Amino acid sequence: MSLAKDEKGRFAVVGAGAWGTALAALYASAGHEVSLLVRDEARAATIAATRRNEAYLPGIDLPSTLHPTANPSAALTSADIVLLVVPAQVLGSVAKELVHAIPSKALVVLCSKGIDRTTGRFASENVREIIGARRLAVLSGPSFAADVARGLPTAVTVAAEEASAADAAAARLSTETFRCYASDDVAGVEAGGALKNVLALAAGAAIGRGLGESAKAAIVTRGFVELRRLSAALGGRAETTMGLSGLGDLLLTCSTAQSRNFAYGLAMGRGEPLSGLKLAEGVFSAEIASRLARERGVEVPIIDAVADILKGELSLDEAMRRLLTRPLKRESAD
Ligand SMILES: NC(=O)C1=CN([C@@H]2O[C@H](COP(=O)(O)OP(=O)(O)OC[C@H]3O[C@@H](n4cnc5c(N)ncnc54)[C@H](OP(=O)(O)O)[C@@H]3O)[C@@H](O)[C@H]2O)C=CC1
Ligand SMILES: O=C(CO)COP(=O)(O)O
């Protein structure tokens, strides 16, 4: 049940990076009224004038009905749906800064995929006390910004604490090319979105180091076991990890250098410079994911290895040796 064609929403998208711009383009193309809140005034003016966001979505024409602005109240005042699309590490501060400008009845949709490394919290936990849980939803699933901005089809999960609120949010966020499945498993959806990024670093590193597709498949499969274990320990349901924001996004992100996390892992594996690479959320989530697992007594050897490599405490070759020489055991999915 998506919105009827004449039921148009007033969307405000906060964050004009790749994903924010893509979602703004998606909803503007679907006929909704859309404001895109850009941090920098000059960039907002350039996007408005050129109908392009070359820094983040090169070569993609943006609909003329999308309104870029650097003015928070202009973007937010009349919105009935607000999408927060900034990196996980700044989501809390951005929410605090804007909360007074967000209309009290607006649905607030969190689109970041990561864990705040200072608080150890996922997006909804971080923002709940600022915005209020009742009007929050999270959106996650296999969705490269460039694909969505071009109008290519995909399906994602939209979660909210109440099942009926999730149904309503999924209906409002679905378009003809963007199919939203509803879920009331917020923890599971957020865990899937954040942990797949860490595992994509490992998959990319294996390919970059020349270990081959077989090694990558083994890492992705055993990584998925870790995702399932840790998600369950954090309150997520098993069926969610088998869905779009678990297996679905893991497969996408571990399969191509179009993923910034996979590309970052590739560069790590090749020993190439890492500075100047695009946002790879897994880099910020790895150590805290490893800590959350340790605190809950959950075994996540691949996630631990990624965290140790990023801290400079382990080489890739040592990491592979460490993984391959763990005590042999029966294969188990949990
Ligand atoms: N790209 C994708 O395909 C997808 C991304 N996501 C998730 O969405 C989130 C955002 O990713 P994405 O848009 O791709 O990232 P980008 O790096 O492309 O863009 C980040 C955006 O956040 C803004 N920003 C950064 N810091 C702040 C701050 N302190 N205050 C306000 N704005 C800030 C940046 O502004 P400025 O340009 O001024 O620095 C920029 O507009 C991530 O968690 C990512 O995992 C989810 C699904 C798909
Ligand atoms: O989350 C994404 C696809 O679903 C985007 O992945 P990257 O951030 O690795 O590019």
TrEMBL record:
<dbReference type="GO" id="GO:0005829">
    <property type="term" value="C:cytosol"/>
</dbReference>
<feature type="binding site">
    <location>
        <position position="278"/>
    </location>
    <ligand>
        <name>NAD(+)</name>
    </ligand>
</feature>
<feature type="binding site">
    <location>
        <position position="145"/>
    </location>
    <ligand>
        <name>NADPH</name>
    </ligand>
</feature>
<comment type="function">
    <text>Catalyzes the reduction of the glycolytic intermediate dihydroxyacetone phosphate (DHAP) to sn-glycerol 3-phosphate (G3P), the key precursor for phospholipid synthesis.</text>
</comment>
<feature type="binding site">
    <location>
        <position position="145"/>
    </location>
    <ligand>
        <name>NAD(+)</name>
    </ligand>
</feature>
<feature type="binding site">
    <location>
        <position position="260"/>
    </location>
    <ligand>
        <name>NADPH</name>
    </ligand>
</feature>
<feature type="binding site">
    <location>
        <position position="19"/>
    </location>
    <ligand>
        <name>NADPH</name>
    </ligand>
</feature>
<dbReference type="GO" id="GO:0006650">
    <property type="term" value="P:glycerophospholipid metabolic process"/>
</dbReference>
<feature type="active site" description="Proton acceptor">
    <location>
        <position position="196"/>
    </location>
</feature>
<dbReference type="InterPro" id="IPR013328">
    <property type="entry name" value="6PGD_dom2"/>
</dbReference>
<keyword id="KW-1208">Phospholipid metabolism</keyword>
<feature type="binding site">
    <location>
        <position position="281"/>
    </location>
    <ligand>
        <name>NADPH</name>
    </ligand>
</feature>
<feature type="binding site">
    <location>
        <position position="260"/>
    </location>
    <ligand>
        <name>NAD(+)</name>
    </ligand>
</feature>
<dbReference type="InterPro" id="IPR011128">
    <property type="entry name" value="G3P_DH_NAD-dep_N"/>
</dbReference>
<dbReference type="GO" id="GO:0008654">
    <property type="term" value="P:phospholipid biosynthetic process"/>
</dbReference>
<dbReference type="Pfam" id="PF07479">
    <property type="entry name" value="NAD_Gly3P_dh_C"/>
</dbReference>
<feature type="binding site">
    <location>
        <position position="196"/>
    </location>
    <ligand>
        <name>sn-glycerol 3-phosphate</name>
    </ligand>
</feature>
<dbReference type="GO" id="GO:0141153">
    <property type="term" value="F:glycerol-3-phosphate dehydrogenase (NADP+) activity"/>
</dbReference>
<feature type="binding site">
    <location>
        <begin position="260"/>
        <end position="261"/>
    </location>
    <ligand>
        <name>substrate</name>
    </ligand>
</feature>
<dbReference type="InterPro" id="IPR036291">
    <property type="entry name" value="NAD(P)-bd_dom_sf"/>
</dbReference>
<feature type="binding site">
    <location>
        <position position="259"/>
    </location>
    <ligand>
        <name>sn-glycerol 3-phosphate</name>
    </ligand>
</feature>
<feature type="binding site">
    <location>
        <position position="56"/>
    </location>
    <ligand>
        <name>NADPH</name>
    </ligand>
</feature>
<feature type="binding site">
    <location>
        <begin position="15"/>
        <end position="20"/>
    </location>
    <ligand>
        <name>NAD(+)</name>
    </ligand>
</feature>
<comment type="pathway">
    <text>Membrane lipid metabolism; glycerophospholipid metabolism.</text>
</comment>
<dbReference type="GO" id="GO:0051287">
    <property type="term" value="F:NAD binding"/>
</dbReference>
<dbReference type="GO" id="GO:0005975">
    <property type="term" value="P:carbohydrate metabolic process"/>
</dbReference>
<keyword id="KW-0521">NADP</keyword>
<dbReference type="InterPro" id="IPR008927">
    <property type="entry name" value="6-PGluconate_DH-like_C_sf"/>
</dbReference>
<feature type="binding site">
    <location>
        <position position="261"/>
    </location>
    <ligand>
        <name>sn-glycerol 3-phosphate</name>
    </ligand>
</feature>
<feature type="binding site">
    <location>
        <position position="113"/>
    </location>
    <ligand>
        <name>sn-glycerol 3-phosphate</name>
    </ligand>
</feature>
<comment type="similarity">
    <text>Belongs to the NAD-dependent glycerol-3-phosphate dehydrogenase family.</text>
</comment>
<keyword id="KW-0443">Lipid metabolism</keyword>
<feature type="binding site">
    <location>
        <position position="113"/>
    </location>
    <ligand>
        <name>substrate</name>
    </ligand>
</feature>
<feature type="binding site">
    <location>
        <position position="249"/>
    </location>
    <ligand>
        <name>sn-glycerol 3-phosphate</name>
    </ligand>
</feature>
<dbReference type="InterPro" id="IPR006168">
    <property type="entry name" value="G3P_DH_NAD-dep"/>
</dbReference>
<feature type="binding site">
    <location>
        <position position="141"/>
    </location>
    <ligand>
        <name>sn-glycerol 3-phosphate</name>
    </ligand>
</feature>
<feature type="binding site">
    <location>
        <position position="279"/>
    </location>
    <ligand>
        <name>NADPH</name>
    </ligand>
</feature>
<keyword id="KW-0594">Phospholipid biosynthesis</keyword>
<dbReference type="GO" id="GO:0046168">
    <property type="term" value="P:glycerol-3-phosphate catabolic process"/>
</dbReference>
<feature type="binding site">
    <location>
        <position position="260"/>
    </location>
    <ligand>
        <name>sn-glycerol 3-phosphate</name>
    </ligand>
</feature>
<feature type="binding site">
    <location>
        <position position="113"/>
    </location>
    <ligand>
        <name>NADPH</name>
    </ligand>
</feature>
<feature type="domain" description="Glycerol-3-phosphate dehydrogenase NAD-dependent N-terminal">
    <location>
        <begin position="12"/>
        <end position="165"/>
    </location>
</feature>
